[in-house]
Amino acid sequence: MKSRDTLIRLKRFQVDEKRRRVAQIEMMIAEFDRMAAELDREIASEEQKAGISDPAHFAYPTYARAAAQRRDNLRQSAQNLHTQLDDAKAELGEAFEELKKAESLEDRERSSDRVVEAVRDPAMIGLASQPRAMRATA
Question: Which of 11, 66, 96, 98 ranks highest by number of CB atoms within 10 Å?
């Protein structure tokens, strides 16, 4: 019984850890997307100031070129995080299923303990040992 409680606590902890990881990855993706959108605005502003929007042009602003590279790196990182997010969600689902299995085993064990205690109950034993005819009149 004690080891089963420890197992359930462990499984709950694992589920909580997986949830935290999923939330952390989702927050990182949102932050990267926000930063990439901000860089898009800065690039557009730089291009407007310079009057040049072609990155291949020799006078294209250096800051816009660096910001575009940074934006592309952030988008690539966000894509990689989406893959990690899918994996983390799968792990969360597995951990949740393991928790449910452990809890269902605990429930079954408790119900079987109740049945055993009911059988051991002296009042129940007394009724079980009486002949059927006597129980019907009682």
Answer: 11
Sign of CA dihedral 81, 87, 89, 95: negative
- pLDDT at residue 122 in the model: 56
Tokens of 94: 């597995």
Residue from 52, 77, 75, 78 nearest 65 by CA: 52
What tokens does 114 get? 């109740």
Q: Domain-by-domain residue ranges, the chain?
A: 2-105
pLDDT of residue 3: 79
Q: Helix (H, G, I), strand (E, B), or coil: what is residue 2? A: helix
Q: What is the pLDDT of residue 60?
A: 94
CA 24 from centroid of its chain's CA atoms: 10
Residue ranges in the chain modelled with pLDDT below 50? none
**Which residue's structure tokens are 């020799």?**
58
* 124 vs 138: CA distance, rounded Å: 14
pLDDT at 110: 75
* Residue 106: predicted pLDDT: 82
